[in-house]
Amino acid sequence: MEPLLITQDSFQNAWLRAIQHLRGKAWEMFNLIVHITNPALLDENLHGKVTDLQSSLGLFTPKEVAYTIFPHKLYARHNNAIDLFEAYNKPKGMYDKLDPAASHRWGTYFRRMTHYDIGSKPVNQLLNIINSINSSPARRYKAAYHIIIHKPGGETKKPLGQPCLASIKVQLEPAEDSHKLHLLCTYRNHDFLHRAYGNYWGLCNLLRFLANETHLTPGTLTCVSSHAYVDKHKVSLKEFLGELT
């Protein structure tokens, strides 16, 4: 199971290249690594086409998937981390108002990042990382910051109905003018039609948020998919790819 590395400037180009590789591998492969060099790039025309495709197939839209990782429009409305976390997690906030069909029994990724239930008091992992980086600019660690999604026990062994995004590493690279902030993410199971496009978009937005809140330069996003696949709607996906060429 030799890994495959795909490097592209935008998450959209990376997703398309990954889909093309999967098509040539009977729609399934292990250890697919996607490296996105510019998390801010977004082709609105292609974005609309992917949205139309997923809507026509009755799948969650890219925005619905991305919002499970980072609610970028809610952040744009509040423009700071503290107000964002409050608006999302407070009673009758965005999380409580989610359509049950758009979330999971275990919650959402952003909920786990900002309200991880452990002991008597939930932990806001994102706030802890932001505060740690901002509190001591002279002692910023290159690879100490880590976001946990899974909870020990059943979530680490069930094939379905549990978080597929396992963890996120926040990496700081010293640069001439400012540190760069990168993310390294691991997926145990990754459906490239249902989820990967929206996942990449949400992670790019999360990266930009963390960079903004820590006054660092947005860097790169790297995603490792232990098991990458397309399960259903393969004919429709082939037709979609054909229309793009």
Automatic annotation (TrEMBL):
Provide the taxonomic classification: Bacteria, Bacillati, Bacillota, Negativicutes, Veillonellales
Protein's organism: Lucifera butyrica
User: What is this protein called in UniProt?
Assistant: Thymidylate synthase
Extract the InterPro entries matched here. Answer: Thymidate_synth/dCMP_Mease_sf
Q: Which GO terms describe its molecular function?
A: transferase activity
